[in-house]
Write a structure and sequence with these properties.
- This protein has about 170 residues and is an alpha+beta fold.
- It contains four helices and ten strands; from the N terminus they run ααβαβββαββββββ.
- A hairpin with a 2-residue loop joins β2 and β3.
- The longest helix is centred in the first third of the chain and has 13 residues.
Length: about 170
């Protein structure tokens, strides 16, 4: 599938109020695996609406995206604080993350491993500015379904500050 065809297909999938996981899995299968070099930088994130409870949780905490500074320097839960600043939500993620090339569904692809949870985000390439992700691991599946999301390259690197003070 060409990058432009993949982008068009993703736009159709994103326009739906609720996505079909079988259709998302079929789309995933057609995409090329991402490499670690595809990840570096800041990415704005959005879920692919399937009714997975993580969608509500990420909305509640103000999830903005991810930042990949290097193989052992990943901020998986970049969130927006009430004052508008960005921070790495280390508490929710139980730390931060690292990235590796790991097999998932018979293919080796760039995969983010959370430091403090048995959770993995596998990535495939839609185009040079867009990745599709599937979250996998213990306690991630909901009714047998994974959490699906999209990352789009941010126009500028994220400037991360400290987490907001607790009230």
């Amino acid at each position: 599938m060409s990058p432009s065809a993949a982008r068009n297909r993703l736009d159709v999938l994103r326009s739906r109020e609720r996505g079909d996981t079988a259709e998302l899995d079929a789309f995933w299968k057609e995409l090329p695996p991402a490499s670690l070099d595809d990840l570096w930088g800041s990415w704005q994130g959005a879920d692919l609406a399937t009714g997975h409870p993580l969608s509500k949780l990420l909305g509640k905490v103000g999830w903005v995206g991810k930042h990949f500074g290097g193989p052992l320097d990943v901020q998986p839960l970049v969130c927006r604080a009430p004052d508008g600043s960005l921070f790495s939500h280390r508490e929710l993620g139980k730390g931060e993350a690292s990235v590796w090339m790991i097999e998932f569904r018979g293919e080796v692809t760039a995969t983010m491993a959370y430091d403090g949870a048995p959770t993995f985000d596998h990535f495939k390439k839609v185009d040079d500015r867009t990745l599709m992700g599937i979250m996998n691991g213990k306690n991630v599946l909901h009714e047998g379904r994974h959490f699906y999301f999209v990352l789009e390259r941010a126009s500028a690197p994220f400037a991360l500050g400290p987490p907001p003070a607790r009230a």
